[in-house]
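Pasting as-is:
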Amino acid sequence: MLDLVITGGTVVDGTGAPGRRADVGVRGGRIASIGPTDEPAARRIDATDLVVAPGIVDVHTHYDAQLFWDPTASPSVFHGVTTVIGGNCGFTLAPTSDADTEFLMRLMARVEGMPLAALQNGLSWDWTSFADWIDRLEGNVTVNAGFLCGHSALRRSIMGEAATGEVADEDQIKAMVGALEQALAAGALGLSTSRAPTHNDGNGQPVPSRWADDDELLALASAVSRQEGTTLELILAGCLNGFSPEEVTLMTDLSLAADRPVNWNVLGVSALAPEGWRQQLEASTEAAKRGATIVALTLPHPMSLWLSFDSGFVLDGLPEWREVLHLPKEEKLRALADRDVRRRLAEGAASPEAGVLGNLAHWHRLTIAETFAPANDGLAGLTVKEVANRLGKEPFDALLDVVIADGLRTGLQPPVFGDDDATWAERATAWLDPRTVIGGSDAGAHLDLMCGAVYSTSLLGHAVRDRGLLSLEEAVHQLTDVPARLYGLRDRGRLREGWWADAVVFDPASVGPGPIHTRDDLPGGAGRLYADALGIQHVLVNGTEVATDGKAAGATPGTVLRSGRDTATVQASGPS
């Protein structure tokens, strides 16, 4: 007898093959049959006029903390995601010690936009080793969840405060290798690291991984080579603005030292400078000449960013702004009301030193995306220019008055970049390039800046249905099988008999992301940006339904993915 049968749907199996009408039978958490079946089942799901596809695999989520208070990994699960990978960019919560707890909390709050109140109130922080940390999730997650070991936590655990500002000596590198090997043996899926100039800790200093030299990185990569089913993930300065020859050499050397692919993030695609992203992908071509694999993570949709004076993230990069935006809330409110402070902030934002962030200084172009105070009722959806005209004020003054009335919580949206036809076409070209993998949701991070969890439904709705940029079958392949094969996930990423029954049932006519809004549902009363999913009717993880029409079922059938047991080795020559 089957535990479940999904009947009448169009099965899009993840391989890219044409969809076909078939029933999907499930038994013992795995797919027992695909095709007509007369076998009785304990439960049936009618998928007539719906698509039955593999669960989506999101390889870049930063859900390390959230899963402890939200085992569903919301809202990703409602957007069809059944497998998440955390520990990205060199940032994870273990290994650590009591002495480093405060440092890690403030680092994650600063660099990944996780509210400090949520980190303080939502986690016990009583673990030390990677094994101790990851074991706590066993049996307590709705989705499948795997984690890389973050270089910054690893380095801090060995070097202490010296991890910031010092190059590791031979003994320290040896100790780091040993700690990494312990994490890998416990199930870490590999190593992640960062040299991104934008990654600073809670004190404004470069994160620990940015102080590592090439010898340290190569030693750690070699440790990765000795554990089955592992990989490498990183972000370098060139990921943001084009690789230097030295960075291409480093990524290639790391891939060869680990005998694993290197996945870097994130590839931005624009029709304004198409030569830029194409040149970045040449790093993969150069690496392949030496037998290495470099794969770029790329977003499938235009990123809609929200700005907030509450956290100040991004805005605090403007000259003269950091000191003000890092004040305690009441002091910040008083400062923003001060005429002299306003003048200083306006001049700093308009100065040549603001660089690309100076584009934000065109305050009139910002949209008031969300307000909270009764005094601001009716302003949501208006541009700052429209609000200024209504109030008879200069745009910057009008903006700050609205923000102050909202207690700093106002959601502000810059013009969406990359929603033009030409850029969508460029992105579609990038999706199909074998040197890329789709993802980069950052779904558990930057919670007041964006809601990246919508990437899957955005691709299926906007790119496939609305724009016809690629077939449904190819889109599902890119969302499921491609990332699963890159990370070597065993028996996941496709609908195939004998494979795990991770599946999503959706309506292709209505699938898409809902509007972004704020939800105050994090520990400590902190808020986050959130978007519901449209058209996703059923989500199954390991054969158990975990979400129905946007509501969690309360089940926790997810597997904590461990290297070797749940992942196979993908060698430097690339996924098969």
